[in-house]
């Protein structure tokens, strides 16, 4: 409407998105993206005609009609709301071992949506495994615990745990075997990965 044949026109399209987040069941699926396809109309994709018939002269088809050349844009992307934990000192050499614990604290009195997921332990240092160790699924309100001697025998270095749920917290306990002479414990550091949300927030992190 109100076109000027001597100028290039600009058309703005309004797009609305509506979904119900269910992070406990990973819905909407993440990581994923939401795309929108823009085109002139009518086009063959509308079903009124085919590309072949639309290119030929006709006294019955719509005027104007356009080739089925679509322009697809990414409207938004979804990323998992994960928690990254840094265990800066983990050792299982020279008679020492390290106990590792990860708590899924999505059960709380603040209305946080309960979540469940696994954690991938990534090792960096001496005798580090080439592949991450993936924990069993950690239910909301529970704590997973294991030993460095079990998940990575002979390792010395640091671990970054990537947990597929929000509000994971970690603890490490370093001692000589049997904790007879020396022992110390520390809380794992929570790394900011850009997807950490405040408590009470539901759904995946939406970047647009």
Short description:
The protein has 208 residues and is mainly β. It is 4% helix and 37% strand. A hairpin with a 6-residue loop joins strand 5 and strand 6 (133-134).
Give a written overview of the molecule.
The protein has 208 residues and is mainly beta. It has two domains: 48 residues, no CATH class; 120 residues, Hypothetical Protein Tm1070, Chain: A (Sandwich), CATH 2.60.290. Helices cover 4% and strands 37% of the residues. The strands form three sheets. It has a five-stranded antiparallel sheet with strand order 6-5-8-3-11, with no helix packed on it. Strands 7-4-9-10 form a four-stranded antiparallel sheet. It is elongated, with a radius of gyration of 27 Å. The two termini are 30 Å apart.
Topology:
Blueprint lengths: L31 E7 L12 H4 L16 E9 L3 E9 L4 E9 L14 E8 L6 E2 L8 E5 H4 L4 E8 L4 E9 L6 E5 L1 E3 L13 E3 L1
Question: Any idea of the CATH topology of the largest domain?
Answer: Hypothetical Protein Tm1070, Chain: A
How would you spell out the order of helices and strands?
Answer: EHEEEEEEHEEEEE
Largest sheet: 5 strands, antiparallel
Label the overall shape.
elongated
CATH C-level name of the largest domain: Mainly Beta
Q: Can you tell me the number of structural domains? A: 2
Mean pLDDT: 83
Question: Can you tell me the CATH architecture of the largest domain?
Answer: Sandwich
Rg, nearest Å:
27 Å
Task: Estimate the strand proportion.
Answer: 35-45%
Report the count of strand segments: 12
Look at the helices and sheets and give the structural class.
Answer: mainly beta
Give the number of helices: 2
In order across it, which strands form the biggest sheet? 6-5-8-3-11
What assembly state would you assign to the polypeptide chains in this entry? single chain
Low-confidence stretches: 202-208
Helix content: under 10%
Cα separation of the termini? 30 Å
